[in-house]
Write a structure and sequence with these properties.
Two copies of one chain form a homodimer. Chain A is of the alpha/beta class and 340 residues long. Chain A folds into two domains: 116 residues, Rossmann fold; 154 residues, NAD(P)-binding Rossmann-like Domain (Rossmann fold, 3-Layer(aba) Sandwich). Chain A is 27% helix and 17% strand. Chain A contains ten helices and 16 strands. In chain A, the strands form three sheets. Chain A has a seven-stranded mixed β-sheet, with helices on one face. In chain A, strands 11-10-9-12-13-14-15 form a seven-stranded parallel β-sheet, covered by helices on one side. In chain A, strand 7, helix 2 and strand 8 form a beta-alpha-beta unit. In chain A, helix 3 crosses helix 6. The longest helix of chain A is centred in the C-terminal third of the chain and has 18 residues. Chain A is elongated, with a radius of gyration of 23 Å. The relative contact order of chain A is 0.15. The interface between A and B is large, with 70 and 71 residues.
Chain lengths: 340, 340
């Protein structure tokens, strides 16, 4: 027997309800104005007790909260995730539920994080922020040796090199979906050479097959990982792949942590072989005392790449589109698991 | 009577010498290969004793070193600076010497620093680097209050906002010379609205006169300063101008320190009114204990925006062009002071 739930009656609008959609109560009701009129919106509070009967579930973007809610839900046939990555959902909801992601909603913010992370590393901002925190006007050539060593300046420059330019660099883009293409668009003014890799080779533009990755890594001054986390891509970047990178190469992970072997990455960073910028880690969250925290030449952000003010509006607009199609009996656009 | 100097005979090449050009010995001779054959290259060591007779002087890019050398030079008629900013030179060499800057050589690197600094601040990288250094997986909403407070989120978001997007922001570009235009080119993919300001108003594209600055500041979410340091521009951004900026606006100084009133900036930062990213300060270098070091919501780099591996090659290519024109009796291109 369903217990009372926190239903927002402002959304009734006098239409006959056809579809009950549960959403996290923390999301502002303002953002749900684009939802179809036939939808009955069911606000789900964190720490929910009892049971709720809904056909469509919009889970909280924080998986731990969403997982607390799931055991209280009944009748869910469709999950509309607000995120691009949905890897925790199938194991929780099982195979009899259709799962859609928020394809496209976070392309811009994730691509911007990637460009920002590349620039922060090429301009040595972690070094300069450490210097700023110490409050002493110093430059790179006066800084701890590991900063200068990793890029392996072959010819000592005068004046000393205190940052790098993106212009002219060779960028290996591993993953050429919508976000990968958005990153390429954003890199356009910076005159980089882009090498593209995806599961299957393509032409116009040239996209290499991931089976050719080993041949491309030695040319990559910057490697951007922006591919889905699947069983196939788990550990794609391991010891052997890192060893193929040129000295001082920058590895940027804007995808998911398990795409990179963390132990191998820690070794390569500690050895001063490469640099890295990560928005995702494996494990995640990264526990206190994990060796990654103290690796040199690393920028680590706590999986925040898409979390801009545009996050919720964009993702809910995408969800509204799926709801309209669902009500009309049309095929859904962003299905990542079809119910069996 | 000139004393012996450290002359690099590899550059004699059998041509009759017509022009003696002094350059800092620390610059690799490789980089001088494009210089005209009629030039006699005179390598000037740091800590030089005695006198050197040269007609053209390429000063060390570090002003303190260059100023140590000047009293030992005789016969200088032309100074070719490797930098865009030459503000220390006229007072040192006097009015009877022509001074050229390295116009254009550092446009790309300076513009890149500007884009990098904007992104670092919008993505809250200083906050996330502090979190990384502490080694505890936290996000913005769990961070010290001054990080969250400055941007003044009017409507609390869910999920919490952990970075901002550049897309859609209004950018006020103060200075629309070659570097300003390069910055605009680099911002093109990010869908910002650009308001341009220069000394004189222009059309196509619309450039406002600096006299209209007060009317534009209230619209500026990001202000980029990239204008020359002159008596006219000293203190251009003072208390009154900072007070016109919207809450949480980002001030980026890629020009010269004195363009901003430092005391007013410190006040605005401490009050949580605005954010800033500075590659230049006033005074410079910033002394230990200066209040700017500990201001919140600030990224401060020690005047390194142009110091990339391309710095010396680009600047010396520009100098080589001026030398060719000087030898041919043609007008010089980048004169910032004509000899009287």
């Amino acid at each position: 027997m369903p217990v009372p739930y926190n239903q927002d009656v402002r959304f009734a609008r006098g239409s006959p309800f056809m579809l009950r959609v549960g959403y996290p109560s923390a999301i502002s009701a303002e953002l749900l104005r684009d939802f179809p009129r036939q939808v009955e919106l069911v606000s789900i509070v964190d720490g929910l007790d009892g049971e709720i009967e809904i056909e469509v579930w919009i889970p909280d973007p924080f998986p731990t909260r969403a997982m607390r809610v799931w055991p209280h839900l009944r009748g869910v046939r469709l999950v509309l995730s607000l995120l691009a990555g949905t890897e925790w959902i199938p194991a929780v909801v099982g195979p009899h539920v259709t799962i859609c992601n928020a394809h496209g909603a976070h392309n811009g913010s994730t691509a911007e994080w990637t460009v920002a992370a590349i620039f922060a590393m090429l301009k040595y901002f972690p070094l300069y922020l450490d210097i700023q925190r110490a409050g002493i006007w110093k430059r790179r050539f006066e800084a701890p040796a590991h900063y200068a060593a990793v890029t392996g300046d072959q010819h000592p420059h005068y004046p000393p090199v205190m940052l790098e330019e993106l212009a002219g660099k060779t960028v290996l883009l591993v993953g050429y979906g919508a976000i990968g293409q958005e990153i390429e668009r954003m890199l356009e003014p910076f005159r980089v050479q882009i090498l593209r890799v995806a599961r299957a080779a393509r032409v116009q533009p040239t996209v290499y097959s991931v089976t050719e990755l080993h041949a491309l890594l030695p040319r990559a001054e910057i490697v951007i990982l922006i591919l889905p986390s699947t069983e196939e891509t788990r550990g794609l970047i391991d010891r052997a792949q890192l060893a193929l990178l040129p000295q001082g190469a920058l590895l940027v992970n804007a995808a998911r942590g398990p795409v990179v072997n963390t132990d191998a990455l820690v070794e390569a960073l500690r050895a001063g072989r490469i640099r890295a910028a990560l928005d995702v880690t494996d494990p995640e969250p990264l526990p206190e005392g994990h060796p990654l925290w103290s690796c040199p030449n690393l920028l680590l952000t706590p999986h925040i790449g898409a979390s801009s003010p545009q996050f919720a509006p964009n993702a809910l607009r995408t969800a509204a589109g799926e709801l309209r199609r669902y009500l009309a009996g049309e095929p859904l656009r962003n299905v990542v698991q079809a119910a069996v």
